[in-house]
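Handoff note, outgoing to incoming analyst
You'll be picking up this chain. Sequence as last confirmed:
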Amino acid sequence: MAWSSTESVCSSKTVYIQLSVLLLLSTSIYMFLYSRIEVKAFTIEKISDIQKSLYRKEGKVQIGQGIRSHPDTEQGYNRSELLLTLFTSWTTKAEKYICHNNTIRNWLEFKPVIQPILFTNETLLKEEAVEKGWDVLPIRMSGRGVPILKYMYRDVMEKYVSPFYAYSNGDILYSHTLIDTLKAVMNSSYLLNDKPIMIVGRRTNVQNVTSEEAISGKIVNKTANIRGKLFTVWGEDYFITSANYPWMSIPEVIIGRRAYDNWLVLNARKRNHVTIDATITLLGLHQTTKAGNSEGFKADNPGYNHNLLSRMYHRLNYDVGCTSCIEFYTRYHDNLIEILKRNISKSCFPL
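Most recent structure output, in case you need it:
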């Protein structure tokens, strides 16, 4: 009996010791995991603060904050419907290969809502673009070997039916902010008066965009937010116009040379067309390469358009063709895009 009592006491002590060790071990594991969670949460919070401070730096532009619409769901627009016929042109240059390849992949992301088209007479370039999913049209009218803008619009409008048509420089990348902005215009009252519409905006310059940074519209937004710098009000790299825009009345200006962009805006204002500055809601990321941000001034025959326009018009006031002189502008309000009338400065006159 004495032996049995002693055995019982020893057994109880053993159980107690085991429970104590188990409790101590559990407490240690809990403290370790809790500290890791706190450190991780602190790290995430610090990263978020750093990103926010970057976005607030001068020259940075936040793109797409609070966008609620998507091309296949919002505002009654079906993803299978063609919203925009988007076209461009470039020549083969080794130093521009990554840039143009980024553009091909980026614009394809928005099919079939947006139809990308390349104007070229180069056989190999045509084959490559078609293989990657673009449509290709020949350059039928040119000045000094460079496509004439009005005939590019004519050719695409004869072949494709869409509410909007746009020429864009071939080094511009877009995100879904392009579709969201156009849908906002589609749903606005400005389409009801049947006036021709021209939508332009300032671009965001990003130096040496990599293939990874152009892999999707979402990444393009992120790249612009982190590394982008908003360009001057003088620079206009895309011209989105309604189907009733009178392109055949426009002089035979050529793409990629100075002066034509600001003249197009001042002419639209002078003709009382609806002009909209979409800078705030529409990201146009310019892939800046070694050629810099003023390629039109360095190209062959940089004064071609100015000389042409000077012969046609007695006075040319390019200043009034800046984005800051445009009648309407877009912005975000309660997670939606709205179009507002701008108080235009006196410096934007006379036309």
